[in-house]
Amino acid sequence: MVQRFDVSERFAAGTQYIAGKTVPGTSDLRLTVVDPATGAPVLGHRAAGAADVDAAVRAARDALPHWAGATPGERSDAMHRWAARLRELAGELAYAESLQCGKPRKLSEEFDVPGSLDNVSFFAGAARHLSGVAAAEYSGEHTSAVRREPIGVIGSVAPWNYPLQMAAWKVLPAVAAGNTIVLKPSELTPLTSLMFARAATEAGIPDGVVNIVTGTGGEAGEALVAHPDVAMVSFTGSTAVGRRIGEIAASGPRAAKRLHLELGGKAPFLVFDDADIEAAAHGAVAGALINSGQDCTAATRAYVQRPRYQEFVTAVADLMRTVRLGAPFADGTDLGPLVSHAHRDRVAGFVERARGYARVVTGGEAPGGELADGAYYRPTLITDAPQDSEIVQQEVFGPVLAALPFDTDDEGLALADDTPYGLAASAWSRDVFRTGRAAREIRAGCVWINDHIPIISEMPHGGYRASGYGKDMSAYSFEEYTQIKHVMTENTGAVRKDWHRTVFGDR
Ligand code: NAD
User: Fold this and answer.
1) Residue 43 pLDDT > 80, yes or no?
2) Any residues with CB less than 8 A from the CB of 179 and at least 6 apart, and which?
3) In a mutational test of the pocket of ligand 1, which residue from 238, 292, 345 has the highest number of ligand atoms less than 8 Å from its CB?
4) Please, which pLDDT band fits residue 250 given cuts at 50, 70 and 90?
5) How many angstroms separate the alpha carbon of residue 119 from the centre of ligand 1?
6) Largest alpha-carbon pair distance within the chain?
């Protein structure tokens, strides 16, 4: 389904999408989108500076009264048309996503694009469902009702690992709820966010409802987060940048903006001794390598009960060796390059340092030959790493899995929680009491039982602890982009209300 097109021609007018128009950035900085499979430049463009961010926020502010005042049904209809337009563009979106990220085409075609399209349909439906406590006379003398209202202009900053899905997760609940938005995608991967926004205009969503600024975090990102007309900041990215964004959002003239932070992860993969080891090994390899391991919920730490540990390590290593590295658009490619050469070198650095204290069972190198120019890295399994080592504790964000043994169930569950992160986890067992305990006790925003990775529009995605707070997807995410107003109407018309005696007079 991948449909190629000329990227330079498509983005000749620029890479900022403001008030329904594509315009060039005005920063002095020039950025280049690079194909990580070859290192070749794909698109050179002028980045967004503070003036572009200001123009985008103004466009969003101007569009707000009309969009917030539309009926839920009108917003829903417009979003259904947007979904239809995106379905027409599915092949081009898959092409651009694979080109800028290096994803194998089957991943873009079967996961990124359909998942994002399903999100549009889901939030088009959610727009009509404003949930809350029923209006009633809870005090006896007043009618209490809840209004669920949009928040205003949302400023959103997204990472490079799933650019289209991240744009969908940020933009859709916001606009479904009647807000308008300015999104800054990662400077590495702006293409599909721009196509996503342009499709909104083509579907009849008013100008200024969805705006995209493409620039760096330090320049465009900080200007957006700090902008006084941005009422809420929604961020997905690393924990370190999330903390910085929290500081900016809490200060300045518009202090205490609402914050939504989806941060890093270091998901444990807990295998009990009664598990189906063949299934667990397949799950671990797929869960660790999806998107070349550049997935915030990827399986990164496999804890395996000691009697089955060696069997698991052997099965995972064997399976990893069968995974075919290759060019993103080539037939038969399972795994593409990482997003950039700099990121590949960062991942390789983790593995090189691990050689000093652990064992690299398979992988641990960049391939040569035809793939030597790309940002490729071989699937890597590491054993014998101490629990407190950096490969076990820190987010590597590459195709690297560490495996460690444990003895008792108590120990396995404690190890699963033993990092600052809490985004996702999985538990593998045929015993419902064991999996039930894991589901209850692991402190993470998602616990899979006998699987690892699947997500779905209807269910929330988001972290505990250093993985942030707030949910993407699902009705929970829609609610986060609304604010609740209690309207309390006195029904008796009495001059002296009963409660007035607390201020003057006696009963
Ligand atoms: P990153 O934190 O480096 O960058 C994310 C975004 O923030 C980019 O658009 C970047 O330009 C911007 N940014 C950087 N500094 C900024 C600043 N000072 N002010 C404003 N914006 C700034 O993350 P990344 O490397 O792009 O993505 C990988 C990270 O994202 C990983 O940590 C991963 O776990 C996380 N992630 C989390 C989820 C989730 O749902 N929790 C999903 C995907 C990715």
Assistant:
1) yes
2) 64, 67, 68, 150, 151, 152, 153, 154, 232, 481
3) 238
4) confident
5) 21
6) 92
Q: How far apart (Å, rounded) are the C-alpha atoms in residues 426 and 424?
A: 7
pLDDT in tens, 285-308: 999 999 999 999 999 999 999 999
Residue ranges per structural domain of the chain: 15-263+463-486, 267-449
Mean pLDDT of 266-279: 98
Give the model confidence (pLDDT) of 260-269 as tens digits.
Answer: 999 999 999 9
Question: Which residue numbers are catalytic?
Answer: 262
Instruction: Identify which of 489, 354, 467 has the alpha carbon closest to the alpha carbon of residue 419.
Output: 467
Strands 299-305 and 232-236: unpaired
- Residue 88: partners with Cβ closer than 8 Å, 6 or more residues away: none
Pairing verdict, β 30-34 and 41-46: antiparallel
CATH 3.40.309.10 given to domain 267-449: yes
For a mutational test of ligand 1's pocket, the pick from 169, 296, 467, i.e. the residue with the most ligand atoms closer than 8 A to its C-beta, is: 296
Q: Please give the average per-residue pLDDT across 25-50, as a whole number.
A: 97
Whole-number Å distance, alpha carbon 286 to ligand 1 midpoint, is 23
The answer as to CATH 3.40.50.1860 being correct for domain 15-263+463-486 is no
